[in-house]
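I hope you will forgive my troubling you with a question about protein structure. Here, with my thanks, is the record as I have it:
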Amino acid sequence: MTPATWRVRLAAVLDAMPELRTVRSTNGPLRGQVLAGTLFLPASVAVGADTTIVARRVVFAGRTVRIATHGHALHLFAISSVETPAAGVLAGTASVITIDTSGAAGADGTDGADGTDGTDGAGGAGGAEADENNCDGADGDSGADGTDGSAGADGQHAWDGDPGGELSLDIPDGSMQSYDLRALGGRGGRGGSGGNGGDGSDAFFSADQTCIGANGGNAGSGGNGGNGADGGMGGSAGNGGGGGDITVSVPHGGAGLVVAASARAGFPGAPGRGGTAGRAGNGGSEGQPGGAGQQGQDGQPGYFGSDGWPGGPGAQGDLASSGADGQIRIDERD
């Protein structure tokens, strides 16, 4: 059995079906098998699941019709006619029926959380006081090191785009409507950005010590700065969804009724950006030496603490690919 002969070869079966002698109308989403003698539909039709329509007459309420399936398959077989108000009454006023089975775009990945900054080092404690008459001042303690920042979290992977739904359409003889058919794959989602690395903390100065005894106390060294943390890796991009297959049977000489048909695959999403590197913490400054007593010398100054190391930037997320294009077949009946 071919698209050109199914009406004739199945005529006895179709005539025996009581469902094809009923009149139905619906405003809600279509789903499953929809059988009717006459099926009245609004100008904007939603499809909530894979759907097959078999009806002798399909009558739309508006001249500009849009059927959106959100990626579900749709098979539309009108035995006798597809009708829209005033279609063909005036020259050049044929209505347009758009059937869109395109898949939805993939969801974006969520961004990774930023790392936390390190905590600052505490100042060093002062040395113990010496006897005011005959002892040297005690040395000051070194400042505490700053702590490292924590790494940024990785961005989450994006979702792939949904594939376009399969679309089958049989345009009855005598039809004058134009058809715009779309079964596009959904675009892949964008990968989440990696979290930024936390900054290393700064170290504090060291303590000094003054004594009025003999010699002043030596100053403590500054603490080392904390290291910056690495940025998180970006999330992988989502793949584009595949295009759905479109199969159309048109009357003899009616190839021009299909004014547009596209089954292009969805484009891939963008990969997530890597997080920025955390800043290195600064080393603490040296302490001041203790002052000399009445008969002594000033103490020695301390040393500057070392700066920390900066973190590294996070890597970009992985690239994705497009889906496969769907196949388009338009058969003209003899």
Residues 11-15 form the longest helix (5 residues).
